[in-house]
Batch of 2 targets.
Target 1
Amino acid sequence: MDVGGDAAALLASVEDDPTRFGEVFDEHAAVIYRYLARRLGPEDAEELVGELFRIAFERRATFDPRLGGVRPWLYGIATRLVANFRRSEARRLRATGRLLETEPPLADPTEGLVGAVDASRIWPRVAQAVAELPDLERDALILFAWEGLGYDEIAASLEIPVGTVRSRLHRARRRLAGLAGPSHQEDDVSLSAYRQSGRCT
């Protein structure tokens, strides 16, 4: 995670030396590209990374280190850009679900074999369910499950209270519940499948 003070100092120094913004790009571009590629596909992601850092440079004065590090701030800009590509994201999620139905994700040794089997079995249905989530719930879920952001970081990224993050994640988990069948903890298995898919894309 970024250290807010260091990040703020770096962004402030850009006023005197704009080339220093390249350090922000170098540190965060790969992670932001991965996030965009998962949501929109590599071609759109490649195009949007440049746009994102152009916006970040122009809006650097809006960065508030009290709300978190630079990365959540960049995730927030990225998520707003994704809003213009909602249809592409839904298509990608469904296509990924169809692909993993025939080529299940590799097992994550930290999850255990049973969890991996469950995840690969239900992933196509999870992908469909996630594609159909309301946009705001999907944003919070992807930042939590795929990007590993904490509640505070998601709140900073989306510029919403932490309580709103909790409620959106709760609603998203409830919508995913039931996908694994009655013999499992359904929402936990569904969320595990979604997390696992993020490791394999």
Note: The first helix runs from residue 4 to 13.
Target 2
Amino acid sequence: MRAVVFDMDGVIVDSEAQWKSLEGGYFRTLAPAWTEAHDERAVGLGVEDLHRFLVREFDARIDLQDFLAHCEVTARKVYQQNVECAEGFLDLARLLKHQGVKTAIASSSPSRWIGMVVERFSLSPLLDAVVSADDVGGRTKPAPDIYLEAASRLAVPTVECLAIEDSSIGLLAAKRAGMKAAAYRNGSNDGQDLSIADFELASFSGLSYDKLVSRLHR
């Protein structure tokens, strides 16, 4: 394993829970039949994918540009003010960097949202690549494109990469790209079916490269 590729939302930061808290009421105004089950189906979707989901499932009547503008305002609250970095993530990222293991973010979020997180938590020195939906023409997870692009930028074959994801959609994207994949249980994704993962993590605290590799070979 020569590289670890992290999803951002729900893995590096607790943004999935923040989005649910801030936008649950808004989604219900667009789709009165919205339930917790729909929350789970929305986890891991890019913002334009979420708009398509609302239109397809609920015939929601909102213009795409209006929806994106609304989400942009919320994103600034989520990423610049509300989110916290996952416990132990920074220590793990530093250890991987010290050991020469390449690291990347591979996220379906727009690049400007990822940039807010990278800047807020000073992640640039710890990352070798950052790939967003914008970098692959909007071909978001569960398509493999974001992970394929991350591996290309890292110059590491996908079979030598470990992806860490919190959603079934993200895990499917990583697997389709040919990566090993770890499921990250973050305390708010218990409803996600993460069974296709090679193993599960409950925390980054105390993790190291050797411990990740040992989990892959159990």
Note: The beta strands are 3-6, 102-106, 129-131, 161-165, 180-184, 199-201.
